[in-house]
Amino acid sequence: MRLSILPFFIISVSLFACKEKHTGNYDKHYSATHKTDTATLALTKMGDVFFGTYEINKSGIEKDSGQVRGKIFGDTLKGIFSYVSSYNKQLKKTKPIALLMANNKLLLGKGVTVVYMKIPYYAPEAPIDFSNPEFVFEEVGKF
What we know:
Layout lengths: L1 H17 L7 E9 L2 E10 L2 E10 L3 E12 L2 E10 L2 E15 L2 E4 L4 E4 L2 E4 L13 E7 L1
Antiparallel strand pairs: 1-2, 1-10, 2-3, 3-4, 4-5, 5-6, 6-7, 7-10, 8-9
């Protein structure tokens, strides 16, 4: 009796495990250039949060690479970028990041940075400026 239940259980588990849910989640890869600097961004969106990797290659001389994470507010992604620089790999830095989704592109915004308990973020009373972005990310593929 026990052997006859085991195949049924294995088939049931495999059917439920392979079922894909489409809930608006995505994994996308973006790239951008500004003068001699290049940046790559790999994002995963799950509901109203995002996370991924971000790398800025500054003129081929210096590179900042690390993790991004944050929340999605309508068409704006706000979070933090925790990274190390190739200039000083022992020092981990964190700075706020804001991206605006517009026309299948992500615009990197600038704002007034404030720090609270060693956590940097953009001041809520000052608007984030997306009018002259340092990087305009274009989608280069999905994972």
